[in-house]
Amino acid sequence: MDFTGAAPPLSHHPDENLPYVHKVGLPPKQNLLREFKATVKETFFHDDPLRPFKDQPRSKKLALGLQALFPIIEWGREYNLSKFKGDLIAGLTIASLCIPQDIGYAKLANLDPQYGLYSSFVPPLVYAFMGSSRDIAIGPVAVVSLLLGTLLQDEINPSNVEYRHLAFTATFFAGITQATLGFFRLGFLVDFLSHAAIVGFMGGAAITIALQQLKGLLGIRNFTRKTDIVSVMRCVFSSAHHGWNWRTIILGVSFLIFLLFAKYIAKKSRRLFWVPAIAPLISVIVSTFFVYITHADKHGVQTVNHIKKGINPSSVDEIFFRGKYVAKGLRIGVVAGMIALTEAIAIGRTFAAMKDYQIDGNKEMVALGMMNVIGSMTSCYVATGSFSRSAVNFMAGCNTAVSNIVMSCVVFLTLELITPLFKYTPNAILASIIISAVIGLIDFEAAFLIWKIDKFDFVACMGAFLGVIFASVEIGLLISVAISFAKVLLQVTRPRTAILGKLPRTRVYRNIQQYPEATKVPGILVVRVDSAIYFSNSNYVKERILRWLVDEEEQLKPKNQPRIQFLIVEMSPVTDIDTSGIHALEELHRSLQKKDVQLVLANPGPVVIDKLHASNFTNLIGEDNIFLTVADAVLTCGPKMEEP
């Protein structure tokens, strides 16, 4: 067999337009070490991150290295007053949204309100210098706050001072996890949490968060620590006669309606995006003033009471670096860090696509990781990109990450000057703000689209959703990951195969189920394998091909048509094959020989043909039984068929 890629004239069939049959070329031999290096480079360094450093003097390399670590050095050179105007407006807008949200989200994490504000001061500053996204707004988010609070309270009572220490420890390890994934370029691990699983997880978490806010919305003092819907609703209804406060309900529901109406206005007109952005702050100001002048706090309306004044104190000495809580902090941190990372990367890519620029996923992970490591040492808990704030940031006309710096400065002024004013802020308003914020996480349209596209994906989506609302956040997360992995394993172990037929007046062979007009060639069965052939699926592929052959023979017997004499396996979708796959092909060849059927291969790729040649499989079936296309194989096999 000629593996050079030449096209010698082998045969000419009067019914075919092309007189030549092309043979499969064998790729040139590669140095094994060089090939291994190339594979590793393509896997982990496909974007060639060292390319800018090539052929550069040492001083230039240092500058490029600093620029890679701190992207602000690159875009900061072209920064001007015009860009600052957009960033200033965007920063002030998202600050008005983040301040009331941060106070509420801290309560979700079972932390004092000031820790939510701390987490919107230091982390955004770090990200502004190290992040590559222009639009992402950094701070605490509802889902991560709830997840962190749920996991932490399972280990330590929130009233215990060690609870806060464990929160900082988990934040530290969340940052280490994120930075490590970015440094070692392992960001592809985040992709194992599928889009369908994220949709279901976010929807379930949104409902769970909203249910948790019933405590503040209804004025219930003694509330369950469980997060499942059954326990929460049982607690709510059991408190109906003596635990609900009608003043709190009127206050909370009134402002919830106001916040939802503000969102409705923004949906009607994109120009009014600022209305729902400033609505939470307006709600806080108005409700706080109302409670102050009516003394509603004396009549059962619960308030924030006290937010510690001043910027972030150091928390380095509060992180557990040894002892029994280190392993717990690591476990919680890894889970929270991965969820935070998934949300931030998804948000960053979404808005980058809208503005047609690229973000470096690995740099983003390092930036987010360092942000949380430094945050853990400055009394912050896990921060990440917030979708609601990022959307407002985008629509407000932000140009760079300076909008995060502006937001951080506003939070700084809040911590230094006006935190005492939050003393009379009712918890019901914070509950209303959180409920209005998380409603957008329930994406019915995405779930319906998933149902239409892939039913197995919908199972993963609903598994995550139901797991979160009926069990717990971590159970829902575990179910979503498990179902996603199950889908991958199912697709790997049970790849699709298809029978191909010839399209009329062409030399093209396609799936007969997709193209009913495609016709089978008498005496020849053409089968396509739509996957790499590995140890995990090799036996299935062999048995499935033999079943196709048996089914075809059973259909031919009553029709007195020619028996199958050639079985052509179309291998263009087979990107790789291992020793188990080659062994399965050898067994398939032997089984076909017993049936007096010749095995023929069509269009094996360079990796596959190289391995088939190295294993001497090409000699086993005959080099003249491997072809470039199915059409060439049929052209050659046709004249060889015996008369019935």
Largest sheet: 6 strands, mixed
Structural class comes to mainly alpha
**Beta strands, count:** 8
The termini sit apart by 29 Å
Uncertain parts: 1-19
| Domain tally | 2
Q: Number of helical runs?
A: 26
Mean pLDDT: 90
Shape: elongated
Strand content: 5-15%
Helical content stands at 55-70%
Integer-rounded radius of gyration: 31 Å
* Strand neighbour order, sheet with most strands: 4-3-5-6-7-8
Question: Which keywords apply here?
Answer:
644 residues, mainly alpha, Transcription Regulator spoIIAA, two-stranded antiparallel sheet, 26 helices, elongated
Polypeptide structure, described:
This protein is mainly alpha-helical and 644 residues long. The protein folds into two domains: 81-489, no CATH class; 494-640, Transcription Regulator spoIIAA (2-Layer Sandwich), CATH 3.30.750.24. Helix content is 58%, strand content 5%. The protein has helices at residues 32-44, 58-69, 72-76, 81-108, 113-118, 122-130, 142-153, 161-183, 195-212, 214-218, 229-238, 246-268, 274-294, 325-355, 361-376, 387-395, 402-418, 427-438, 444-453, 455-470, 473-493, 538-556, 579-594, 606-614, 617-621, 630-637, and strands at 137-139, 384-386, 497-502, 509-511, 524-529, 566-570, 598-602, 626-627. The strands form two sheets. A six-stranded mixed sheet has the order 4-3-5-6-7-8. Helix 14 crosses helix 15 (361-376) and helix 22 runs parallel beside helix 23 (579-594). The longest helix has 31 residues, at 325-355. The radius of gyration is 31 Å and the shape is elongated. It starts with 31 loop residues before the first helix and ends in a 7-residue tail after the last helix. Mean pLDDT is 90; it is low at 1-19.
